[in-house]
Amino acid sequence: MAKRIVVLGAGESGSGAAILAKEKGFDVFVSDCGTISEPYRALLDQNGVQWEDGKHSEELILNADEVIKSPGIPLTAPLIQKLQAQGTPIISEIEFAARYTNAKMICITGSNGKTTTTSLIFYILKQAGLNVGLAGNIGNSLALQVAHENHDYYVIELSSFQLDNMYDFKADIAILLNITPDHLDRYDYQFQNYVDAKFRITRNQTKEDSFIYWAEDPVIDRCLRTLRVNATLYPYGFTQPNPLPVGEDELALKGRHNVLNSMAATIAANVVGIKKEVIRESLMTFQGVEHRLQYVATVRGVRYINDSKATNVNSCWYALESMTTPTVLILGGKDKGNDYSEIDELVKQKCHTLIFMGLHNEKLREHFGKLVESQKSKVESPIQIIDTDNLHDAVQAAYHAAKEGDTVLLSPCCASFDLFKSYEDRGEQFMKAVREL
Fold this sequence. Notes:
With 437 residues, the chain is an alpha/beta fold. It has three domains: 4-91, 3-Layer(aba) Sandwich (Rossmann fold); 95-285, Mur-like, catalytic domain (UDP-N-acetylmuramoyl-L-alanine:D-glutamate ligase, 3-Layer(aba) Sandwich); 294-435, Protein-Tyrosine Phosphatase, Chain A. 38% of the residues lie in helices and 19% in strands. Helix 14 links the parallel strand 14 and strand 15 (351-357). Helix 1 runs parallel beside helix 7 (142-148) and helix 6 crosses helix 12. The model has no long low-confidence stretch (mean pLDDT 93).
């Protein structure tokens, strides 16, 4: 009798895992408590996979031999707790897919810069003519690519949620960009729990493998003093030998943070054995990532920048740090246990207006309200705060607040799930609203 695999969640990763499991001869069932979107329904139907949506039927789930869990489902969910209590193995799609490929795995994690660095490494490898797939949080699911394609390399962006349920998986090249507080609502508001999840990227590595990390990150530095990492270490940063084959001013990606991302990508490409000329050309021609400091338009002399991918405070810090003109900052969304004090100094230096756009702006009002009060006796024009509860009104408010030569920056600091389907949806709506001005 075929081993029964239940897949919880039928998005990109879940659907891909189900297709691969079906192809490998398992008895497969997919369950999603939300609505499965039409393309994924069609994919499951075409491959003869049984599914349900709008509910989790426990009698069809608790009899699983193994469960593949969507990264979006927390370990505290009652159904997950029941599965754990009865000893059912729960793994990630990445863990499952890796069982069926001998491809080299280049894996990238960190609180910020993951998508940019992952995309840049993928671009370099493609430019070098390698047979490479892009997976994880971007691209098609790893499992679907393993089922239908046969790549020699995979460049994989990994979130802490994906790392949580990986056990036997091994990265040939692991990259840890940085660690700052994020997703604390999923980690019992304990920063160390989140740190531990990030360091799982080094799990199962041997001396033949590579661990590339930002040497100047204080959290990474502290952990490496006590944690045993078996891989060969490749530190990078401004205090390390510069690996870049081009000058910083020649990089296609601008900003101090992107210099670091480019360093990490360069070292990964060197480890793979890519020629210096290919790396150099790629660093100079890479086009960047949607929703990450993406130029939208200039309206009446005001530049509008879409940084919807900034779903945590540190990511917003990087965006503000790269601003060279007076800035109107739009922020807000689903708070994940954020500490906004990290951006206080940059807000004071660069912003003349803050616009909140969320269903629950209380925490933002409280924090930045105090900041403005502390300014009132010290500066001639304290920061203006405008409160809205939707993106359209926020863009309109920014239009009226901005002066010629300013930048309007959407860099929300927060998750998108109060008003939007995803950060991509938020970014698309922002760009649409700007183009309608």
